[in-house]
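Figure 2 data, in text form.
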Amino acid sequence: MLVVGALGGLGSASARACAAAGAEVVLLGRRVPKLNRLYDELVAAGGRAAIYPLDLEGATPADYADMAERIEGEFGRLDGIVHAAANFPGLTPLELTEPEAFARAIHVNLTAPMLLTQACLPLLKKARDSAVVFVSDAPARIARAHWGGYAVAKHGLQGLVAVLGDELVNSPVRVSALEPGPMRTSLRGRAYFGENPASWPEPSAYAPAVVHLLSADGAEHRGRVWPLELRAG
């Protein structure tokens, strides 16, 4: 199982949940010391894991092809991908957004997940049943002033789920997305800095839903976005 953005709130929670469910987890992120700490935590808990350092912002299609080749060489196949990486620097009017910042948000939140998935499709098709799970965001919540490139990219991501899911409908690869409600992450804190974080559930509350989408039972959400909102406590 490949967890992209394994160092984020939902990414690390998903990695822990996947490892606890018995999956061998490949942790993809850009900060090696933190990846190593998460790896040590999973192994100490009896899980199986590996790390793959990669910065989505600067990665190229060749980097993704090399990654897929290395995963195939070490594991033989790939049963699933969780796309939990996100780029959201904060609320800024589009009029004042630097072009580089807008392009970065589109790339990390939309283009990179598509290109990484594309590179892994031959590997995913080797499994009897595999899944690609994207993390979406509620369009009604983010289609508002100041959400910038993040909002644009997340709208595009829902289109990607529909198109890619339809293209792969007769393959072993299932495509879906989880649209979680508010949770206690740094991203949420940057957007809703006036709220009390204690009112939001921890990302770990949503991790079982990610595992569900990755499992065979997730077929019920094939080609669709699953809106799920949980309460704190």
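Caption note: The radius of gyration is 17 Å.
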